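Input record (Table S2, row 428):
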Amino acid sequence: MIKSRKEEEQLSREQLENKAIRDFGGFIARVKKTVPFYEEKLYGIDRADIQHIADIAGLPFTTKADLRVAYPFAMLSVNLDEVQELHATSGTTGSAVVTAYTSNDLRLWSQAMGRVFARAGVGPQDLVHNAYGYGLFTGGLGMHYAAMDIGAAVLPMSGGYTQRQVTMLRDLGATVLCSTPSYAQHIAETMEEMKMSGDDLKLKVGIFGAEPWSSEMCHELERAFQIQALDVYGLAEIIGPGVASECIEGHQGMHVSEDLFYFEVVNPETGEPVPDGERGELVLSSLLREATPIMRYRTGDVTRVISETCPCGRSTRRIDHIQGRVDDMFTLRGVNLFPREIEAALLQMEELAPVFQLILDRHSALDTLEIHVEPRHTADHEHLASNVKNSLNRTLGINVVVTIKEPHSIPRSEGKAIRLVDRRKLSR
Ligand code: DLL
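Output record (DLL complex):
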C-alpha cells in the first residue's frame, strides 16, 4: 500500500538516523566520482567513515560562494541530457546560482511539497490560488507541483495584476492562497480598497513563505482573510519550497522533511552544533537529489530546533520560524536585532499601515537605523513619528530615526519584499 504523505512523517528517530547515515554514505560514494568539487572536498573520506550520526558533523560544509564559483554547471552530478528542469536564484549580491532537476528530482520535490499541503489540510477538494511567481523562482512551480501531488485544482496566477487577483479569488472561490506574506498583505490591502473583505471569499488557509515574517503579520493576514496562515520554508539550492512547513494542528514552528533533507543548526561563527532550542544557522543537505546534490549547505538562515513533540502525530522535528539571515542582523545600542523584530513592533501600532522599510547605515563603527512607515489613515506626521520612536524605545530599547511617508508611497511587493536597505557595506 502507498503511504499517505502524513504517514511518511512517522519514522522513529532511529530509523531517521540510520537513513541519514546511509544517505550520506551513498552521497559520498557517488559525488566523488561525478563532481570534481566534491572529489576534492572529500579527499581521504569515504562512505565507511560515516558510521554514526555524530560523524556527519565532521564533514566539510558547502557555501554559497562555492556554488557561485561553480556557475553554471560545475556542480552537476549527471549529464545535461538527464536534466528536466532548471531554476536560478539571483540573490541580492553576486552572480546567480543554478539548480537542476532530473525527473526523479521533480518527483522528490513533489513529494516534499505534497507534505506541505498535507500538513496544511489541503486535499483534492481544494482550489489553490497560486500567487507565487512562476519562472526562475521556485515558488510558483513548487506550489504547482504540490497541488498536482495531492490532487487539488490549481489556478496558476503568478504575481502581479493585484486587482485581478482579488476578483479571481472572489469569483472562483479558491480555498487556499499561496504567496509571499508581503504580497498577501498587498492583496489584502487591495481587497479593502475594492470594498471587499474576507467574508466575500472562501479562503480557509494561506501557505506563506520565501521571506521572514512575524507572528504579528500572521495575525494581520489571518484577520484580513479569515484564514489560518501557515509558514513554508525552502531554498532553491536544496529543492525550492518544501524543506519545512507548519501543520494546521500544531501551528507553531515548521516540520522539516528530515528524511529527505538532513538538517543541523550550528553556531555561525564556529560551525559547531548548538544544543536543541538554541538559535543558530541552519545547515541543510540534499543528498537524494540526482542533478545537484549538496552536502552541509550553510543557508545563512537563523532558527532553532523546537524539540517538543507536535500534537499532529508527525515525528519529524520542527524548526522555529526563520528569524532572518545571519547577514541581516544589526546591533543597536548593544541589542542584536533582525528586521522581523522591528516588523513585530511596528505591526502592534494600529495607526500604521503594515508596510515599512529599514535603512541601515554605519557611522563611527556603530549601526544606525532609519525607519520609513506610512500612517493607516490621515495623521499629524510629527506626532505620529514621535509616537513610533517612543514606542520602539519602550518595546525594543532602541533609538531610531522615524520618517513618516505619504500613504501608498512605500513600494508594495509582488514577491519577496525588500524590507532592508543595508548601506553599511558602502560606508566603511
Ligand atoms: O524562497 C523558496 C520558497 C518559495 C520558499 C516559496 C517558500 C515559499 P529562494 O528564492 O532560493 O527560495 O530563497 C531562499 O529565502 O534561504 C531564506 O533566507 C528565505 N526564506 C525562504 N522561506 C522562508 C521563510 C525560496 N518561510 C531564501 N521564512 C532562504 C523566512 C524564508 N525566510
